[in-house]
């Protein structure tokens, strides 16, 4: 009979763990290696571009879409008055055209930095329920709905701070479809799918509430903290993401995400993998992919594919649509996220 004392068992277990190739200390940490497929459509009709991009990735998303009770479309309405900065109604029509055969109820849901319903009126989203009656389209202001889950990100002092994320965007019964816009940005170089979702999810005070609060502001504690906070938020949201489509029919360059100027890129990009879709968009904008910290972080923690040679692009050749976007005037300060942390004490111990 072997000696099965507690000490013998303990040492045997340690030996088994040390021998395991999965935890051997000298083994390299594995990287995200799953290939991704991204649709890239180039054409002169915004609505058609969006529809065709989604059709090209339909085999990747149809099973999940069929399994869900309803669809959420999350537009990017950072401005409620400037159409160039915000998701166009024709982009939403392209998505709704694609969704029609699935006969799922659709909720268009946003937490704009301003008055969400003002944006719905300004950009004529209010016409969509009447145009797509079988889809039972509803327009929801996430701030007004007020339901949330809490996560913690880092503030300007690298201390944890709680933020409220719209609970609807974390609904396991929903197929969440991001309707992003291709734009430069004043803090994180470029804003695409991941930026639209992670900074669209934090809430602020609902209409009519006198006490003013805005959890989106917690993300602007510094150039490093913004990238890291977005990655933490993406980790929370990623299990609920279904697909993304980026409208680059008329992108924005210069002082985005609100005050830039138009670029007629005439493209639409779609994928089930948000990180891969954003990487293709970054390439189409002629931006150095190493500059986009939050996307690199998302790739590093396994949320999606950011290595171009592991992304299969269907449709238009990337080299034919690539245009070098003018970046925000603060680009040099934005890129300081890549440098060393000099504002804290040196290493101790």
Describe the structure.
With 349 residues, this protein is α/β, with parallel strands linked by helices. It has one domain: 3-Layer(aba) Sandwich (Rossmann fold). Helices cover 32% and strands 21% of the residues. The protein has helices at residues 6-19, 46-56, 58-67, 89-99, 116-122, 128-131, 142-145, 193-200, 223-237, 274-284, 293-300, 318-321, 331-334; strands at 36-42, 70-75, 106-110, 138-141, 148-154, 160-166, 174-184, 190-191, 241-253, 261-263, 267-271, 311-315. The strands form two sheets. Strands 1, 2, 3, 4, 7, 8, 9, 10, 11 and 12 form a ten-stranded mixed β-sheet that branches. The protein has a two-stranded antiparallel ribbon with strand order 5-6. A hairpin with a 5-residue loop joins strand 7 and strand 8 (190-191). Helix 8 crosses helix 9 and helix 9 (223-237) crosses helix 11. The radius of gyration is 22 Å and the shape is globular.
Quick summary of this structure?
The chain is an alpha/beta fold. The chain has helices at residues 6-19, 46-56, 58-67, 89-99, 116-122, 128-131, 142-145, 193-200, 223-237, 274-284, 293-300, 318-321, 331-334, and strands spanning 36-42, 70-75, 106-110, 138-141, 148-154, 160-166, 174-184, 190-191, 241-253, 261-263, 267-271, 311-315. Strands 1, 2, 3, 4, 7, 8, 9, 10, 11 and 12 form a ten-stranded mixed sheet that branches.
